[in-house]
Amino acid sequence: MSQQKTSPTTKTLVLAIIALIIGAIIGYGFAATTMVPYSKYAELEEKLKQAGGGAPSAPEYTFYYVSHGGPADPWWAPVIKGSQDAAKLLNVKVVYSGPEKFSVQALVDLLNSAIAARPNGIILTITDYNALDQPARSAISQGIPIIAVNVPDPRPANQRIPYLSYIGQNEYDAGYYLAKYLVDKGYKPKRVVIGIHEVGHIGLETRAKGITDAITQAYPGTPVEKLDITTDPTKAAEVFKSYLTAHPDTDVIFTLGPLGAHPALQVLREMKLTGKVHLLTIDIDDTILKAIDAGELDAAVSQQPYAQGFLPVVFMYLYVKYGIIPPPQVPTGPTVIDKARLETVRKQIATTGGA
Amino acid sequence: MSSISKNVKPHGFIARHPEIGVLASFFSIALIFIVRVPDKFLTVPTLYSILTLAGELGVASIGIAFLMITGEFNLSISSVYALVPMGVVLMVNLWGVDMLAASIIMLLVAYGIGVTVGYIAIKTGIPSFISSLGMMMFLRGILLAVTGGFPVRLERDHWLTYVLNGPIGELGLRTSAVWLLVLTAIFAFILDWTPYGNWTYAVGASSNTARELGVSVSKVKLTNFGISSLLAGLAGLMALSRFRVVDPTLGQGLELETITSAVLGGCLLTGGYGSISGTFLGAFLIAMTRVGLVLAQAPAYWYSAFIGIILIIATVINLFIVKKYVTSG
């Protein structure tokens, strides 16, 4: 709860820091070209002039961005773009690597190859803290700092991997505030079903737990069930259909990503239940925004993925270059998008490629 | 088949019906659901739901069963399953090509990919498991690179989508189910009643014998590679027709699921033996288990464990039948 209260201030702080950096870079560049250096920083300014002058010079640092989100998952496209944009601004090299299909083993392998490359910093999703614990600790002991993104290490502070900071959404909060949105609107669900498209994925399971808690805290005794819908649309659609047949009193469906939301939407349309059965989802794409606009989908959570690519690179840069220690947690969401907030989100998508 | 059944006259019926194993599993599983939830399981909408779920999987599995009887594998079908609809959507959206024309072009491409996988395997002597695994990864990489990981959306309406996967009536029957039934009938007929079917069995059982008997082994194999790829592409178009969206990850895991249906249906991994109607039942059994478990209000996460046990039991029964009645003669 407390993090939710601090998040606007933290966000402002983050924005201020970014503005400062960008301002500083532009300022330095400007100063270097137009002013005669005459200050106690003259030497530094001269160095910066040499470094910044002329064509793009060799990257100052190399960071590895190791994530469970491969190129297959469209959600990660703005993250990759954000990390590369930040790299360009700061003149660092960010190597993004993610397995093609969700696999913890592949993630561990990628982390090990990243460590072997001896980068200046590693940005890592802690998708499975058991599997990643040993390699991540070994990286830190070798002097490679780690910033966690997207999925944190859920253990208490004295047991978790000693990373600098966690930047991203709290998965539990994403589910919790999405379900709370429904509760706050005064809606009392009769039966809730959560479609989970990658069972055993800790992030998705935690989202589901957040949803379950928000509903059952508000209305104890409300049945909330998880459904394995797989990533295949036909299977997801028919499994939802079977569930609605087995439990005709179902009036709220939660999905945990577009791979669940698309087939759920299709089934509600086919069964002529749109508007009657409430549909809420996490993460956003074009189809989901259109459905919100049309009133077929109540709300969706955006975790502003571009920021999860951009910010860790900035924080890593500040740490490696200046020794600025980032705050322990920098939230990038959850923001619940309903019809009233569509315009702002469309701007984010137009500029960053996703929301 | 005919050559085999001559040797095993006394038990010819069982030997000629590899679907016995899957039938046994099918009835025992169905019985569980019928006892647990008779009011919800034994309904027409449930049957339609199962058939819809089995639709794309079944169509792709038929091609795989045909190929497995020839003694070969094609893992690349899971990527073809996404490549064909993706190509169609891009052609329709970007160049305004008619969906029917685009579909025909992409299905020909799919056939070509299948033949290529087979050609590589036959000419170089590497197992088709490997050549198709490579093709699977190659095509998936292309899909991801071209789309940047984003799903593509079919922007125009076309009558073909209703033909391939449109609703029939109000109870949930879809044309995809009809396609599955019709294609099962056609390919079962080809396999058991035409000379081509006989060649397929012969090539799978012993390619040397088949060659001596005058069958063009590589031609039969290449054709079956092409068919498996073509049917996977058609199944992909069926998925597209319902959801109008193609995700670049569409079909991942389908390669193993089709093999599961084929093996459940009595196909041997070593070739030479199998059944199309059995494969249909295999896909139907997989779909029925998924739907049945949800209807029976079983905890959602048990599906995979259930299918695993069914697969092993059915395969043991199949192997027993093969050992006892087919190879003993």
Model description:
The complex is a heterodimer of chains A (355) and B (329). Chain A is of the alpha/beta class. Chain A contains twelve helices and twelve strands. Chain A has helices spanning 2-34, 42-52, 77-90, 104-116, 129-141, 171-184, 202-218, 233-246, 258-270, 286-293, 305-322, 342-352, and strands at 62-66, 93-97, 121-124, 146-149, 166-168, 192-196, 224-228, 252-255, 278-282, 299-302, 329-331, 335-337. In chain A, strands 2-1-3-4-5-11 form a six-stranded parallel β-sheet, sandwiched between helices. Chain A has a six-stranded mixed β-sheet with strand order 7-6-8-9-10-12, sandwiched between helices. Chain A is elongated. Residues 1-6 and 27-39 of chain A have low confidence and may be disordered. Chain B has one domain: ABC transporter involved in vitamin B12 uptake, BtuC (Orthogonal Bundle). Chain B is built from 16 helices and four strands. In chain B, strand 2 and strand 3 (173-174) form a beta hairpin. In chain B, helix 9 packs across helix 13 and helix 11 packs across helix 13. The longest helix of chain B has 27 residues, at 217-243. Chain B is globular.
